[in-house]
């Protein structure tokens, strides 16, 4: 399993958080997505490398995103 941490810019409310979480959860391979408005970040657990797809999904919702960390986590 992999864990991605993404910096997300442009979120300003709970609706933004929900939109980003839903976009991430729709990406094939994503197991879990947690988005923090206060930290301007998303932590995503995946079964494969989907960093680019996650960035694209967030940007399609109108926010800016970049992967700041990707690591393998033990099952």
Helix content: 25-40%
| Major sheet size, sense and barrel closure | 4 strands, antiparallel
Order of helices and strands: EHEEHE
Shape type: globular
Number of E strands: 4
Name the strands of the widest sheet in spatial order.
2-3-1-4
As a percent range, the share of strand residues is 35-45%
**What is the CATH architecture annotation?**
2-Layer Sandwich
What would you report as the Rg, rounded to the nearest angstrom?
11 Å
Alpha-carbon distance between the two ends: 6 Å
User: Residue ranges: pLDDT <50 for 5 or more in a row?
Assistant: none
CATH topology: Alpha-Beta Plaits
What is the count of structural domains? 1
In short:
By secondary structure, the chain is an alpha+beta fold.
Structure write-up:
- With 75 residues, the protein is α+β, with helices and mostly antiparallel strands.
- It has helices at 14-25, 51-60; strands spanning 2-9, 30-36, 41-46, 64-72.
- The chain has a single domain, classed as 2-Layer Sandwich (Alpha-Beta Plaits), CATH 3.30.70.100.
- It is 29% helix and 40% strand.
- A 4-stranded antiparallel beta sheet has the order 2-3-1-4, with helices on one face.
- A hairpin with a 4-residue loop joins strand 2 (30-36) and strand 3 (41-46).
- Helix 1 (14-25) packs across helix 2 (51-60).
- The mean pLDDT is 96.
């Amino acid at each position: 399993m992999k864990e991605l941490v993404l910096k997300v810019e442009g979120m300003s409310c709970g609706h933004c958080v929900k939109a980003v979480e839903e976009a991430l959860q729709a990406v094939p391979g994503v197991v879990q997505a947690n988005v923090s408005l206060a930290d301007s970040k998303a932590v995503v657990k995946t079964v494969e490398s989907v960093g680019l797809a996650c960035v694209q999904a967030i940007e399609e919702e109108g926010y800016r995103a970049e992967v700041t960390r990707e690591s393998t986590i033990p099952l």
